[in-house]
Amino acid sequence: MRPGRSASGTTDVAAGARPAARGDAGTLAVVDAVRYAYPDGSPALRGLSLEVRDGERLGLLGPNGSGKSTLLRLLACDAAPALRRAAEVEEARDRWLVPDQPVFRSWLTGRENAALLLELRGTSAPEARAASAEALRRFGLAEDADRPAGTYSAGMRRRLALAAAFAAEARLLLLDEPLAGLDPAGRTLLAEAVSAHREAGRTVVLSAHDPDFAAAHCDRVGFIVDGRCEVVDAPARLLRRVGVRPRIEIRFDGASPERDDLPAPPSAVRSSTWTGHGVILEVAEPRHALPEVLAWVLHGRASVASVDVRQPTLADAFHQLTGRRLEPQEEGE
Asked: Looking at the predicted structure, is the pLDDT value of residue 10 above 70?
């Protein structure tokens, strides 16, 4: 869980890894057209370029196997030539990686595991014990802190890994799929910790499958596909870029009405997509358009089974900009 080891595989920086300019405030690291291959020769990164800024919450969205984990490991690695860092994160103690499958000493308690990780980073034993106790309380593990970590559920182990990471107060915190195994309460605690980390002037880079979490808690989001960063921008700007509109999704109880029997759609409808058992309507203002739309559909004597109003999400933007879809995020402990 603690960074500092060399990444396995090979990295090709002939395409250009350039240093983060020492005089450019706000840039922690620059990855420029980096290629990375696994030991068996299969590519993981195919010319990926990305800037990590000081004091930001940067989210990485992409399907499994897109290169997100590889990128995070390279950002954490001392020996990887895949990037150059600003002075603020040149030391290993200034970076902390939480992998997607954190490993603990099962015979030690949660408290002992967290303190040990901080001590390995160079924190004194008294400071490590105090910092880990506060972090465990923060992540809802105070009552279970003295139980062996081997008795923890998957969600508790995830909280333990996050508690140790945030206790370290690293300048660059790297979280690989931190939502995996977290229940709604755990997700809330993570969001609060990420926000506090940023308010303290530190940087968080996290990978996830959940576009809603990324939109709500990241300043910028990068779309990673097939080892490349297709686009990176603020969530609101990504949505504006693709022009995704809110949708009204109507499902019929039985067959769809004959469209020849329907009058022209209401002016609020920008586009319509008919399916075998329903219709998806893009509209500008769902609240204002809904009464008109329902009256229009019922004019065709349709039997409506359900009506859903869906706001555009980063999943919509991801699909339009990359042509790929995100896998659903697994939840629960």
From this structure: no
Model-level pTM? 0.80
Same domain, 85 and 197: yes
Residue 298 — pLDDT band, cuts 50, 70, 90? confident
Say which CATH number the domain at 215 has: 3.40.50.300
CATH number for position 263: 3.30.70
Residue 320 belongs to some domain of the structure: no
Total count of domains within the chain: 2
The verdict on 143 and 64 lying in the same domain is: yes
Q: What percentage of the chain reaches a pLDDT higher than 90?
A: 49
Residue 176 belongs to a domain: yes
Q: Which domain holds residue 261?
A: 245-311
pLDDT exceeds 60 at position 330:
no
Tell me: do 236 and 264 sit in the same domain: no
Alpha carbons 323 and 244: distance in angstroms, whole number: 14
* 90-105 average pLDDT score: 85
For range 178-203, the mean pLDDT: 95
